[in-house]
Amino acid sequence: MPAVALNPVDLYDVRSLLSEEERMVQDAVARFTDERVLPIIGDCFDQARFPTELIPEMAELGLLGSSLPTEYGCAGMNAVSYGLVCQELERGDSGLRSFASVQSSLCMYPIYAYGSEDQRREWLPQMAQGKVIGCFGLTEPHGGSDPANMKTHAKRDGSDWIINGAKMWITNGNLAHIAIVWAQTDEGIQGFIVPTNSKGFAAQEVHKKMSLRASVTSGLFFDNVRVPDANRLPNVKGLKGPLGCLTQARYGITWGPIGAAIACFAETTEYAKQRVLFERPIAATQAVQIKLADMARRITLAQLLSLQLGRLKDAGKMQPTQVSLAKWNNCRMAIDIARECRDILGGAGITTEHSPIRHALNLESVITYEGTETVHQLVVGREVTGINAF
Predict the structure, then answer these.
(1) Backbone phi, then psi, for 259, in 5-degree steps?
(2) Kind of pairing, strands 134-137 and 188-195?
(3) What average pLDDT does this structure show over 307-316?
(4) Which residues of the chain form CATH 1.20.140.10?
(5) Is the pLDDT assigned to residue 295 strictly greater than 90?
(6) What is the CATH number of domain 240-385?
(7) Mean pLDDT, the chain, integer
(8) CB under 8 Å to 257, separation ≥6 — which residues?
(9) Could you tell me which of 241, 260, 127, 131 has the C-alpha nearest to residue 184?
(10) Strand pairing of 160-171 and 217-228?
(11) pLDDT at 352 over 80
C-alpha cells in the first residue's frame, strides 16, 4: 500500500471521524479565524483591546449559544460542533474563545436550562444576535475554588430581591448588558439576571494583565442592587446551578487549547524548516525533531480525548469527571507546547509577531479558570479512589 502523506496537525485523521455538518462548521470558523482574527489579534493583545467589531460576525456565523435550540434563535449545533467552534476560535486567541464560552455556556445556557420560558424568549434571541452581551458572576475576591463559601447574598424585599456583594475575574464584565449573578439566599444559592444598568451595580475593568489581554476582565460590585423576582432563575437552587454551567463551559475549554497548541506547533514547524544554523535548518536536528514529534503526539491524544468526550455529551452520557480529565490534560498539553515553541523560536519568540508567547501567556489563565489544574486532578483522584481529598 503506497504511503500517504499525513497532516502534521491531524496525524490520526480525526477529521474523517467528523460528520459533513461538523466539518462545515469547522471550516467556516477556521475561515473566520484566518481572515478576520489573525490579522488583528497580535495588535489587540499588545493594546489590551477586545475586538468588539467581531461580535456581529460571530453572531452571524451562529457562534453565540450555538448548541441551544433554533426555536430561540440559536444554531442548534451538536456538542462536537460547539467544540470545534471553540478549537478554531482559540487557534486565533483564548480571549475570543473566552468571550464565546461565557456568552454561550455561562450566560445563555443557564437562562435556557434554569430560566422561565418568558426569560428564554426575552433574552436568548437577543444574545444569539450579539445585541445583548452577558457575564457570569460566580468567583469572588476571596477565592474561586470554594464557591460554596460565597459572600454575595440576596434578600427578599416584597416582590423584589436586594443583592449585595462582589465578584472578581469576570470575563465580559465591562461589555455586558446583563450579569448572571449567583448569590446566597435563605433558600440556598440562587441565580439572578441582573441588568448592568441597575442602580447600585458597578463594573471595574482589571488592568495590567499579562494574560488574556485581548479580553475584558472585570470586578463586579453590588450595593443594594434591586431586581424583581421575575429576574430570578426559578428552576434551580444550590451549587448544582453554577456548577452545571461550569461543566458546559469546561467542555468547550477542553477543545479550545487544542487550537492554541495547533497554532503554535504549525508556526514553529515552518519556522524550524526555514531557520538555518550551522549550515542546516534547525528542523534537521534531532533535538528539534524530537520536540516537534512530541508536540504532534500530544495534540493527537488531546484531539481524540475531546472528540470522544463530545460524542459522550451528544449521547447524554458525559460525566463531570470526564470533563475534568480532558480539561486537565489538554490545558497542560497546550501550555507546555506553547512554551516549547517559544523556546524553539529563540529571541524571535518573545514578540507578538509570533503567536507562541501570546498563547503561552493566555494559557496561564485558561489552565487556572473554571477549575485549576490541581482541582481537576483531585476530581479525578476522588473518582478513582472514592475518597474526597479536598
Answers:
(1) -65, -45
(2) unpaired
(3) 98
(4) 240-385
(5) yes
(6) 1.20.140.10
(7) 96
(8) 90, 302, 330, 331, 333, 334, 335, 363, 366
(9) 241
(10) antiparallel
(11) yes
- Residue ranges of E strands in the chain: 134-137, 153-157, 160-171, 178-185, 188-195, 201-205, 217-228, 276-277, 280-281
Q: Which three cell numbers stand for residue 13?
A: 485523521
Q: How far is CA 134 from CA 61, 252, 382, in A?
A: 18, 17, 33
Q: What is the pLDDT of residues 202-253, one digit of tens each?
A: 999 999 999 999 999 999 999 999 999 999 999 999 999 999 999 999 999 9
pLDDT digits (tens, 9 = 90+) for 127-186: 999 999 999 999 999 876 777 789 999 999 999 999 999 999 999 999 999 999 999 999
Mean pLDDT to the nearest integer, 46-63: 98
Instruction: Write out the three cell numbers for 345.
Output: 523560536
Beta strands in 67-216 (DSSP E): 134-137, 153-157, 160-171, 178-185, 188-195, 201-205
Hey, what's the cell of 269?
514547524
Fold of the 14-128 domain: Butyryl-Coa Dehydrogenase, subunit A; domain 1 (1.10.540)
Class of 134-231 in CATH? mainly beta
Task: Return the axis-axis angle of helices 320-344 and 240-274, rounded to nearest 10°.
Answer: 30
Residue numbers annotated as active site: 370
The answer to whether residues 222 and 163 touch, using CB atoms and an 8 Å cutoff, is: yes
Average pLDDT over residues 43-67: 98
- The residues near 285 (Cβ < 8 Å, ≥ 6 apart) are none
DSSP for 3-70? Answer: --PPBTTBTT-GGGGS-HHHHHHHHHHHHHIIIIIHHHHHHHHHHT---GGGHHHHHHTT-TTTTS-G
Q: Which three cell numbers stand for residue 389?
A: 481529598
Distance (Å, whole) CA 383 – CA 259: 28
Comma-separated ranges of CATH 1.10.540.10 domains in the chain: 14-128
- Pinpoint the residues of the chain covered by CATH 2.40.110.10: 134-231
* Beta strands 178-185 and 134-137, pairing class: parallel
Asked whether the whole model's pTM tops 0.85, one would answer: yes
